[in-house]
Amino acid sequence: MLGKTKDQKPKTKHQQLEGGFFVAEGSTPLKRIAGTPLLGDTPPQYVAHLPSVKARCGLSDKAGCMQRGYYFMKYIYGPVKSRRLGFSLGITLTPCKICSFNCVYCQLGKTINTTSERREYIPAQEIINELKPWLQNNILEAGDLNYITFSGSGEPTLNIKIGQLILDIKKITAVPVAVITNASLLNVALVRQALSCADLIVPSLDAVTHEIFTKVDRPKEGINVEDIINGLMAFRKEFKGKIWLEVMLIKGINDDLVHARKLKDIIDKINPDKIQLNSPVRATAEDNILATDKKKLEKFKEILGDKCELI
Ligand code: SF4
Question: What are 23's strand-pairing partners?
Fold first, then answer.
């Protein structure tokens, strides 16, 4: 097994590098880079990290950096210190940006291909071929990981091999697997079954009425919020792991208190382990998307009850 075993505690301290990446304290930058930038289908925030990597190894191009021992990975990013998940190694299962939603608040920009078609957008074996050497070459960081997280450049459940990938990862490491999903496919029994071996699912639910749902999440035609809610309730009954439901609030769109009470009724039926209330802090797909102010977030939290936390 590579990485952490179930009882292992983190052994290393980490120092933060520019771009939000972390390396083990006292490590040699060239060999001990914990996070490696994505190239190719890379979200812009990860590409932005590349110049600082080049600067640290004193080389000016990708080929030179690779000769000196950097790994340039297409599908793995981080580890990043995540507000929600702790120290997390990310894996993207779709090219940027393929999603069943086109959320107004998406920090990856507008969706290029809004689809609900499930395909092997990125071959599962290619992802394992990147992950395995990363775990072997970054033993300390791997030991400190809280999660290997499927998220990245689009909606991970669109990759039809997601279930196989979770099983394959579990054969090579004991690091828990988390999946961040927009929940749009949870009404499909095969998708729920595929996610059943994960340890943590972080689905989102930004609205419970059709009108608000289409304004915030702008789904692929044919996806409706009632199916998503039914999918979440069915998943809760079947899934043995943890469910942390995320609600993203946008000022003036889904943050009025009437909507908060409707959300509360539905969320009680879904019965997640935690509710994480969020509001955009980074650049969004559309202009004029504003965060809900602190006071209102507190009020929302109060309505949603004890399981709710502000992120
Ligand atoms: S579901 Fe996630 S990736 Fe897709 S558009 Fe919304 S925020 Fe972006």
Answer: 15
